[in-house]
Design a protein that fits this description.
Length: 316
């Protein structure tokens, strides 16, 4: 091979190496830009999910506030007139005592018994009215609560309080409703950084579903069925775990993948909006960076398992 040919081959080899270097550099640049695009897309998707969640929560908050205000006005009248009735009945009792010598003893005793019943009944109305008023105030506080504000919260207390609230709410709607409630709360859980207004909605939604499921099954099952709800908490170091389990009819296999979808519900028309579990999923995963899973067996049980970080770390 001549010297000129060697020079040409060397030149071609050099050009090939330069071209390969350019291709490699271009490929690296494209890969880097692709990673940036993927990260940007992921961030946009996260922001979109967050906006959708905030819109849902805002709608729910507006609805809650509207209902609470509608309830509060007549409730104020009930509470005020209950207190007034107690005061008037006591005044009447005092006045009656001054007229005792003018009345037949049997008639006086009869009137006094009626007055005591009136005072007792009005006092009960006032007591339960005050309880209803505190619930309404809680609803208004929830509707106004910041969707991003996190605070250290006694996790066990919050869980127990709102599951009991859901139970009494179900009892108020269905006087025949009854269920055995079992709890197993790990004292080591302590305080968790979360949004109590938002997370209480999760507790109410899941507990309400469990109570509804056991009540539904109880109306159709035989006397051997005993409705039960259990909830437990566990300290997992930097995380906390909550399990809420009912022995209701379970979730059919063909619809399990849809239960967190917006507007999906297995309840009859009018009994559910299909937003409860969807909103709960967003609150747990998007707002709190946690996880929510469901385990179920058709005809036997449903158990929701929620895992939350104990310390909320704001997203960059």
């Amino acid at each position: 091979m001549s010297q000129s040919q060697n020079e040409r081959f060397a030149k071609i080899e050099k050009e090939n190496q330069a071209l390969e270097s350019k291709v490699e550099a271009l490929s690296s640049e494209l890969s880097e830009k692709n990673n940036i695009l993927e990260n940007t897309f992921s961030e946009l998707k996260r922001i979109q999910d967050q906006l959708i969640m905030q819109e849902r929560l805002a709608s729910l908050g507006a609805l809650t506030a509207g209902i609470a205000h509608e309830i509060k006005n007549p409730l104020n009248f009930v509470n005020n007139f209950a207190v007034l009735s107690v005061d008037l009945a006591k005044e009447l009792e005092e006045e009656l005592s001054t007229q005792q010598n003018k009345l037949d003893e049997e008639a006086y005793s009869y009137i006094l018994d009626i007055l005591k019943d009136i005072i007792s009944n009005a006092a009960k109305i006032s007591e339960h009215g005050a309880r209803a008023d505190s619930i309404v105030k809680g609803m208004l506080a929830h509707s106004r609560g910041s969707q991003e504000e996190m605070e250290l919260t006694d996790f066990n207390y919050l869980v127990e309080e709102y599951i009991n609230l859901a139970y009494h709410g179900m009892r108020a709607k269905e006087s025949s409703f009854n269920v055995k409630i079992e709890k197993d709360l790990d004292e080591a859980v302590g305080e968790v950084s979360l949004n109590p207004q938002a997370f209480s909605r999760v507790l109410l939604n899941i507990a309400n579903n469990g109570f509804y499921a056991t009540h539904y099954k109880n109306k159709r099952a035989g006397s051997d069925y005993h409705p039960e709800i259990s909830f437990s908490t566990r300290n997992l170091g930097d995380k906390v775990e909550l399990k809420i389990r009912d022995n209701g009819p379970g979730i059919p296999e063909e619809v399990r993948a849809q239960i967190f979808n917006p507007f999906f519900t297995t309840k009859p028309t009018g009994d559910g909006t299909g937003l409860g579990l969807s909103i709960s999923y967003d609150i747990v995963t998007q707002m709190h960076g946690g996880d929510i899973q469901v385990e179920t067996a058709d005809g036997e049980f449903t158990e929701f398992i929620i895992t939350l970080p104990k310390e909320h770390l704001p997203k960059d």
